[in-house]
Amino acid sequence: MILTEHRVENYRNIEQAEFRPGPGLTVLCGRNGQGKTNLLESVWLLSGAKSFRGSRDPQLVRRGEPYAVISSVAKREDGEAEQYRIIIGGEGCEQAGVRPGRSAQLDGVDLGRATNLAGHFYAVVFSPAHLELVRGGPEGRRRFVDAALMQLYPGYIPIYRRYIRALAQKNALLRDARRFEGAEQLLETFDQTLAAAGGEMIRRRGAYFAGLFELAAETYDNLAAGSERCSFTYLPSAEDGEALLDRIRAARPADLRAGFCTVGPHREDFKIEINGADARSFGSQGQQRSAALSLKLAEARQIARIAGSEPVMLLDDVLSELDERRRDFLLGRIQGRQVILTSCEAAALHDTPGGIWEMEDGRLRQVQ
Fold this sequence. Notes:
Layout: E1 2-11, E2 14-19, E3 25-29, H1 36-44, E4 67-75, E5 81-89, E6 101-106, E7 109-113, E8 123-126, H2 132-135, H3 138-152, H4 156-175, H5 183-223, E9 230-235, H6 241-250, H7 252-258, E10 269-274, E11 277-278, H8 279-282, H9 285-307, E12 312-316, H10 324-333, E13 339-343, E14 355-360, E15 363-366
Parallel strand pairs: 3-13, 3-14, 8-12, 12-13
Antiparallel strand pairs: 1-2, 1-4, 4-5, 5-6, 6-7, 9-10, 10-11, 14-15
């Protein structure tokens, strides 16, 4: 997968920008707050995923404009080119004839929701926030695996949505169950939906983790030169959908007391250990960063293994967060892939064989 053309209009602070990244390394440089990450984020949206910064769709539209547009061309491994177009509706978009949220076209065909781009454009993004994969809470690790699965297996998206919708409905009922006649019967209906969708989520997460964790452990071993071992272990909420339903039913008294659902994939996690000790509690900062780096590099290898397509690597100012050894390891492992990298330290990258672009106040120009 090679991104050959990328153009954005009215995206965040960017009125208009167009660039043609090379097949290897492309550097976006400039001071903080100029729009480098915004441009990188717009490339990530081609995967069909939401913003990796947690932003809502209307926040992606330039202030004062009704909508933003992303237009791109990418070349597949077979040499065929695909054209992508994403329209993001903001405040007042309907008056301009644009629907709210993100909609997409592929080769001129309307796909409806932009999530329907999943499975066409593959990318892996690595930002300073992803260093929290190890030292942060379980919510970030769940987002990590769900985003990966949605990109690789578009069929995971409706399963996830069905689970989240039933979870929200059950939680709303639990908060007011004492005053609602027939609450027990309705809770049972929600529980069966949660178990069916949740069991499938557990199965798919488990299958994905089996390959990912093997690759991540191998990558960490290479980074540490065999001096220490890092292991990754999935902690599922149940073995399968049937076992999950039993657990959910058993937890109903606790759910009623708490006012929310206490069991299920929405509370799962995976464990990271270094030499048998919990990396989150006992790992050094360097060890935690090595584990996070290993996970992201393993994610890229997993995409190539499953999809048969090398993902575009999007590195958002992570070099400044890594020491020289880990920085060199990362740069060595991304060779042979298309990489778009943002950096505030332009001088340190002027010797790169790839193109260098400078972003200033939302305006983009090529300097090398």
